[in-house]
Specification:
This protein is of the alpha+beta class. The chain folds into two domains: about 1-90, no CATH class; about 130-205, SH3 type barrels. About 55% of the residues lie in helices and about 15% in strands. The protein is built from seven helices and five strands; from the N terminus they run αααααββαβββα. The protein has a five-stranded antiparallel beta sheet with strand order 4-3-2-1-5, covered by helices on one side.
Length: about 240
């Protein structure tokens, strides 16, 4: 019975996690873009068609109940796609860089925006694999317990000099939501390089350890991979 349950869990969990992520993204777009657009559409009907929103009549009831939210959500998706296509062009990239430069000069916003940008680049940007150089295991949060993390930098000079050790900067994502986590400065000798890619490590974290690469899962030894994959830490 337990075996069948685990098989079912392995089959269903990726679908549930995918649906949860899509739900969060769609909910964000709908609430922050779709709803305002829908309300603007309703306002336009009231303003220019003279419709009473309290009793719009049969011909406008569908719009106020269903039409405006659906149209608003569709427009939100369309605007997101258009923004993506535009930012992929030369002019779009130039304009976006100018827009970022302006934001960074605005009080308070200029302090928050760079960190928000780095945060999104870590998880959604094209440079994720460069920022997360190597997947490692480190003794965290206590000795004898290990967590998966990503080497992001070679540490900080002041900490190295104070401890007399070569410390490496490691980001340990929270599981199953890796959008937050812990920054740990760990001695290089304590790092265990893992022979898995950044994407494979992220799948392990998001699935709370349920999903492992076949060549690393206990009982699923891949002969073609055994003894051939080696992980190395980035050189100092």
């Amino acid at each position: 019975m337990k075996r069948f349950f685990l098989k079912g869990l392995f089959a269903v969990l990726p679908i549930i996690l995918t649906a949860a992520v899509l739900y969060l993204i769609i909910g964000f777009l709908y609430n922050n873009v779709g709803v305002p657009i829908g309300e603007a559409l309703k306002w336009g009907v009231v303003r220019f068609q003279g419709v009473d929103p309290r009793s719009p009549g049969e011909s406008w009831t569908w719009l106020f109940r269903w039409g405006a939210p659906v149209v608003g959500f569709c427009v939100a998706i369309l605007l997101t796609l258009i923004a993506g296509f535009f930012l992929a062009t030369f002019f779009g990239r130039k304009l976006y860089r100018w827009y970022e430069a302006v934001l960074k000069r605005v009080p308070l916003i200029g302090t928050i925006y760079p960190y928000a940008r780095q945060f999104t680049d870590f998880f959604f940007g094209d440079e994720k694999k460069q920022d997360f150089k190597t997947a490692v295991a480190i003794p965290f949060p206590t000795r004898g317990a290990y967590s998966i993390g990503f080497v992001t930098a070679q540490g900080m000079k002041a900490i190295n000099e104070a401890t007399g050790k070569e410390l490496v900067c490691v980001f340990v994502p929270a599981s199953p939501t890796p959008f937050s986590g812990f920054l740990v400065y760990t001695p290089r000798e304590d790092l265990i390089p893992l022979p898995i890619s950044v994407d494979e490590a992220m799948r392990i974290i998001i699935s709370a350890g349920v999903i492992h690469p076949d060549h690393q899962a206990i009982g699923k030894t891949d002969k073609s991979e055994t003894g051939t994959r080696r992980a190395e830490l980035p050189k100092a």
